[in-house]
Design brief:
With about 425 residues, the protein is mainly α. It folds into 2 domains: about 5-240 and about 320-420, no CATH class; about 245-320, no CATH class. It has 19 helices and no strands. The radius of gyration is 22 Å and the shape is globular.
Amino acid sequence: MLSGHRLLVLLIVLLLAVRLVVVWIVYPYAAAHKPEWRWSNNDGYDRIALNWVETGVYGLEQGVPTAQRLPLYPAYLAACCMLAGRGYAELAMIGQVAMSVMTGLYLYRLGARLFTRRVAALALLVFILHLQVNNFVFRCATETLFILLTVGFVYHTTVLRSAMQWRDAWLAGFYSGLAMLTRSTLWLLLLIVPVVFLVDAMRHRRGRMDITRVVLVLLLPVIIQMPWLMRNARQSGMFPVYHTWVGHPFYQGSYVVSNIGSFLQRRISVADLDQAGLLELRESREYGQCMRESEGMRPVAREVLADRCAREMAIRRVSGYGWRLIPLAVTGMLAAPALQMTWTSTLVLAVVNFPLIAAGLAGALLLWKRNPGTLGAGWIVLATFAYGWVVHAAVWPQARYVLPMLVPFLVYAGYCLDACLPARDGERKTA
């Protein structure tokens, strides 16, 4: 039998090999047969990066500032562009391979910390083979970076609760701050973390230094985001402006969920529903009035007003559902882990993700039955997954948005799989 160290080395080599095969073999084939998977087909991150490098203006259009996309991923692409010129895409993919390998290491350490090395190895193996994780390694999208930052945050928060070391406080705050410059998902969860730690400190009568470490986890992300917030304040004359693409996807997501029956009957794709929702929004009288009122304003200020208008319209749309809100909310919850832009990709992810989620929930239940006191050690893993699932089910129930929260939850799926295997040398434990 392989030792834990040798098994980890073998799995990391396998992880690296699989990701490189995806970039060097799968991507050229996919790009040739599925144009929508080509690197340049994305949410505009590469356009921002190229404009930023060539003109010095952070914008989707040359010379026009924007705050529609958060800056960390475009900054990464801009760095690749500065190093490799127009061949930056290949360098960016290799960088994303490295990010994925680092994520795998963190996932293994999380599983070993909470459970055993065998559980950690099973979770890592699932991560290596997960189709959607592999897909995003060669895509111009924030997922690979955001998964790394989310897993890093979850790992160091888990360690911090038991060890209360400055290093873990710094790294938990650092990863969460960078994550919030990549996607806006974690900000509400981050407010919950200090509450849990402060309750722990009061229950166990920990010292002032422990509380200071917890405050650092909350304060460091604010410091990291401040240059971006100040930039947006200068561009818009408003503060705080985090980013200006919240109301639009909220409206599009509500449109998709309310018309999802057409997709399930295979009459229309989610991609077409998404665009139909955006078109309905932009052709509405209220939105048009908002855009006319914002004429003459600075570009970012116009984006702020447009997104506020879209958000208000989305809220009214959802609140107007009445009793239909309950079945639509259930539909959003069920759809979120699998829903993608096409029927085929949705079916594939349903086959992959629902069994993994079921295994993870079974693992958590099994752990609670074996030793209820140990379930709390992984509270941040469970809270992150539940939070990400519920938030995205409510806003835009798409599998790619749930994926970063699903990855750390794989340690519970690994625990379930481990329970189904024969015990070996007394290694299995409950925490």
